Amino acid sequence: MLLLLLLLLLLVVVVVVVVVVVVVVVVVVVVEVVVVVVVVVVEVVVVLVEVVVVVVVVVVVVVVVVVVVVVVVVVVVVVVVIVVVVEVVVVVVVVVVVVVVVVVVVVVVAVVVVVMVVDVVVVVVVVVVVVVVVVVVVVVVVVEVVVVVVVVVVVVVVVVVVVVVVVV
């Protein structure tokens, strides 16, 4: 009986040792798997970070190049537009000055012509007025002379008639 108990105890000890060894082996395997997974994940993250850094650098370089090119093109276009606008403004100013000079010359000539015409018209009007006044004066004098002659003739006729009547 004692032997059986010892054997049973030995069996229990062996089973416990086997179970402990199996658990230790499983834990070691699990730890190794976890370590491998962590190492793989870290490597993947490092590779991803390197890829992201390269992509960011490439994007930054491309953006800088594009911005520099766009700024240079815009500056060149603005300078060309400013030069063209200045040339157009100069041409417009020259044309406006020429037009103003021509208008001033035309206005001066027109004023001179109008003054000359007004002078001629004034002279003609004065001559006409003088002629009309002279004609009116002559007509009035002629009318007065005719009236005086008529009055004298009438008086003479009346005197002759009275004398004839008295004599007869």
Describe the structure.
It is a single chain. It is rod-shaped, with a radius of gyration of 70 Å. The termini are far apart. The chain is mostly helical and 168 residues long. It has a domain at 50-137. The protein is built from 1 helix and no strands. The mean pLDDT is 96.
Topology (SSEs and partners):
Elements: H1 2-167
Quick overview:
With 168 residues, the protein is an all-alpha fold. Helix content is 99%, strand content 0%. Keywords: Membrane, Transmembrane, Transmembrane helix.
Essential attributes:
mainly alpha
What's the number of helices?
Answer: 1
- Report the order of strands and helices: H
- Strand share of the residues? under 5%
Instruction: Report the C-alpha radius of gyration, rounded.
Output: 70 Å
Q: Sheet bearing the most strands, described?
A: none
Range of helix content: over 70%
* Mass-distribution shape: rod-shaped
SS-based class: mainly alpha
What is the rounded distance between the termini? 232 Å
Quaternary state of the chains? single chain
- The overall pLDDT, averaged over residues, is 96
Q: How many extended strands?
A: 0
Low-confidence stretches: none
